[in-house]
Amino acid sequence: MAKPPSVAIRSLHNVVNRYLRVTRPEAAEDISNGNVDVIVYLARHDNEEIFPQDIEQRFGVTRSTSCRVLGLMEQKGLIAREPVKRDARLKKIVLTDKSRHIAEVLRDNAKNMERILLEGLEDDQIRQFMHVLDVMQTNLVKTGLIGDESRYPSLEIREQDASKSQVPQESQVPQKTCDDYASNNRDACDEYVSHVLRISQEMAIARNRK
Predict the structure, then answer these.
(1) What is the C-alpha separation between 24 and 36, in angstroms, rounded?
(2) CA distance 96 to 81
(3) Distances 5 to 15, 113, 126 between C-alpha atoms, Å
(4) Residue 180 pLDDT exceeds 80
(5) List of E strands, the chain
(6) Could you tell me which residues come within 8 angstroms of residue 150 by beta carbon, excluding any fewer than 6 positions away?
(7) What is the 3-class SS of 178-195, one letter each residue?
(8) What pTM does this model have?
(9) Within 13 A of 207's CA, how many CA atoms are on the CB side?
(10) Residue-by-residue DSSP string for 67-88
């Protein structure tokens, strides 16, 4: 008998995790979970000015916690604080070359894994598969039993919300692609890359315990 969809999804998830563990870049071995999240967030918003209050809001932490985390990251050479031109009293948070390299090698590793994962599949097959996954997720989110819907990005839910507003003429509606949705979903990308970085860290911890 074929596996139930939920079992098949969990099985694939476990295989992805194992692959990421054995292919982890050495540059990310000693990065903590908290540092990982900040690095990914800063890398994703590299062209914006990010301040401590942005970190507090993004991760739901207190000012004292953000000060402690950012202070330690600065000591480790992962971030730096730079004054902004419009107000020298303000110090924005930027990545150092060291942390940029960490984010880059993990991102490359994740992209390579995705390439291998999709080998032998046509574009239409991939789109249909992603649609099926989205419908499954939406079905569970709609039960209202798993908390804040915004934590679980769903194209279907987003499209339903958009349909409630005024709809322009069909000829005026630009056709969106999967890439368009992905580029607008920064939190989802942040979470994915954070996951890749965490897998690398977990592998390093396990190896040190041996």
Answers:
(1) 14
(2) 10
(3) 15, 22, 17
(4) no
(5) 79-84, 87-95
(6) none
(7) HHHHHHHCHHHHHHHHHH
(8) 0.61
(9) 12
(10) HHHHHHHHHTTSEEEEEETTEE
Tokens for 6, please give them. Answer: 């939920």
Largest CA distance in the chain: 67
Confidence of residue 85 (pLDDT cuts 50, 70, 90): confident
Please tell me the total number of residues recorded for the chain in this structure.
210
Does residue 52 surpass a pLDDT of 80? Answer: yes
Residue 174 — very low, low, confident or very high, per pLDDT cuts 50/70/90? very low
Strand, helix or coil for residue 93: strand
Q: Which of 55-59, 175-179, 184-188 reaches the highest mean pLDDT? A: 55-59
Tokens (6 digits) for 182 = 């992905």
